[in-house]
Amino acid sequence: MRPDRERHPTTTLLERAVRGHPGVTDAVAELVDEQGSSLTFVYLSTHDDLTSRRIRSWLHVEHPGRPVPDEIHVVPEIPRHGDCPDWSALRRVRDDAARLRAPYVAADTDTERYLVELWEDMLELDRVGAGDDFFSLGGHSMLAVRIRRAIQRDRGVVVPAELLFINSVLADQARAVDEVGSPAGAEPISS
Amino acid sequence: MSRPMLPVPDDLGEVDLTDRVLHSTYDLGEFWQHLRATEPVYRHPGTATRPGFWVLSAHRDVSAAYRDHRRFTSDRGNVLDALCAGGDSASGQMLSLTDGKRHRDIRRILTQTFSLKGLDALGVRIRTAARQLVEQALNKGGCDFALDVAKEIPLQAICDLLGIPYEERQRIFALTSSMVASEEPEQPVAEAWQAKNEVLFYFSALADDRRADPRDDIVTLLVDAAREGSSLTEDEIIFNCYSLILGGGETTRMAISGGVLALIENPDQWVAFVNGDVPVSSVVEEVLRWTSPSMHLGRTAIEDVEIGGRTIHAGDITTLWNVSANRDEAAFDHPHQFDVSRNPNQHTALGMGSHFCLGSHLARLEISAVLESLRDLVGTIGLTGPTRRIYSNFLGGICSLPVALTPAPRGRTTTVPAPSAIG
Questions:
Q1: Which of A88, B217, B228, B357 could form a disulfide with B350 if both were Cys (CB 3.0 to 4.6 A apart)?
Q2: Which H or E run contains A95?
Q3: Given an 8 Å threshold on Cβ–Cβ distance, is B201 in contact with A145?
Q4: In this prediction, does ipTM exceed 0.85?
Q5: Could you report the per-residue pLDDT of A85-139, keeping only the tens digit for each?
Q6: For residue B204, which residues of chain A lie inside 8 Å, CB to CB?
Q7: Chain B contact for A165, CB < 8 A?
Q8: Do A141 and B198 lie within an 8 Å CB cutoff?
Q9: Nearest Cα residue to B375 out of B257, B254, B283
Q10: Is the pLDDT of residue B5 over 90?
């Protein structure tokens, strides 16, 4: 068992901030130097249906101006050896999540940004990008139904299951939604 | 017409029970007989992409596993494909896929509807519809019995119960019939997924409709239960509707068309039945045993279970094969004979124990209604072309049954049994 790493002020502050959310039961943060840049990761457990995105926007409102974590991972329970977080287990959580993700590409169009929010909520994930794949991220039938219902409600179009199945990458799905939504086609989405 | 018998290979592992085409193409009778005799608790090999699983083929083991819901859970899925894919996405949310208190709670909501009393009014409609469909077929001199009768009766009945409007029903049938089976040997993964998704989507929208505008149907019942704080979730409402349309529409379709084919292929049994020598209820049970539309049901062992000298380990996928249990020589005399007077007839076609088919009364009612219409109205029935089977490793049966029909001679008894009219 290795000793807890030296706490960096950033991680201590982040932990304290995240634990301040009423839905959070436990949280730890770590700072990792990866290829010259330092990244902050937050792991939290919740008794609520808290998602990474909700915590992120809550941090933004409650602690404006503070550094924000690069990744937030919601886990069933923070693994620990005694009082000390099991950092290698947490690293596996992060690696497992990373393996399913495409290299991050920020959403570019209105529909892409809309879908990013929708996916983040439905899949309970953080920082979904335009290149991410619905099924790789754990998307299943009922989530697809909820996404279709949400699109129907918010955009007034019914996206056939087939389109969602074929276009499982977010950017493709956004394009498909736009095409269904504008039968005339060729109607660019203004930002 | 009938499927060729699959020879039992030296290496049993060559028979891939997950192969959806195998079951439709071959009669696996000898394979099952071999398993029951030599390896009633058989370990089906896995592949690089699919785990191995246990195959229970003997009536006694299948029955025992059904009843042992404490050690064999349904809550990770009850269909082989879903279990092999790592669990059903509906697990724990669909009546058939829950155990314990949650199961009893959901079952209680639906029990009233599917009780004999609850089905009273629907029963009258079903009998009328069956009579009309058989009369139409008689007027034309023939029909595709699987499509024109066997499909319509359960479809209309379950849609009545769920509150699906008439104009939607044929589309719903097209979708539900491609969810776990298909009429073509090749079915792209996408097709089944899309069909399932459209059905889930449909019920999600229907549930919203019923929230705003309650009706006298099951969807309203489920929506109300959720509202009254039974902790039924939105997903559970949708998954249970999905399960009901599949269980209510598809299985009975297979039972009816397979039962009618059996009557055609066994003229002595047809005569015994139409002469009233045998009560309809007895014919229904034999039809259920003979057709066993749910070929298997799956379970997952919760703890290590010892059966017949083998140990099924906790977490292992275990499949209960009705198609084999219902041909078990140890449980039935002459199991390979279609015998409408069979008694006793402890088949497993509707499952057993706490997951015993919720729609058993409805299924029996529908099969009876069709059989009674045939008995009362039809003189002769014969095949006019090749039959077709669906492709699936879960549901088995006939989706096309072209027949010619002639009317019954006047004065055939309807309800009063004629004492041994034919010698």
A1: B357
A2: helix A87-99
A3: yes
A4: no
A5: 999 999 988 888 887 888 889 999 999 999 999 999 888 888 899 999 998 888 8
A6: 145-146, 149
A7: yes
A8: no
A9: B283
A10: yes
Are the C-beta atoms of residues A129 and A163 closer than 8 Å to each other?
Answer: no
pLDDT at B402 over 60: yes
How do B53-56 and B317-321 pair as beta strands? Answer: parallel
CB contact under 8 A, B190 and A140: no
Q: Are B72 and B300 in contact (CB under 8 A)?
A: yes
pLDDT score recorded for residue A94? 86
Residue of chain A whose alpha carbon sits nearest to that of B190 = A165
Over its C-alpha atoms, chain B yields an Rg (Å, rounded) of 21
Q: Is B90 close to A142, i.e. CB distance below 8 A?
A: yes
Q: Nearest-CA neighbor of B374 among B26, B102, B73, B131?
A: B131
Chain B residues touching A139 at Cβ < 8 A:
none
At B159, list the tokens: 């849609």
- Out of A141, A160, A165, the one facing B200 most closely (by C-beta) is A141
| Residue B374: C-alpha distances to residues A69, B135, B266, B276, B380 (Å) | 72, 9, 15, 12, 9
Whether residue A151 is predicted with pLDDT greater than 80 in this model: the reply is: yes
Note whether B197 contacts A144, CB cutoff 8 Å: yes
Higher pLDDT, B35 or A99: B35
The model's pTM is: 0.83
pLDDT tens-place string over residues B361-387: 999 999 999 999 999 999 999 999 999
Cα gap B217→B223, rounded to integer Å: 10
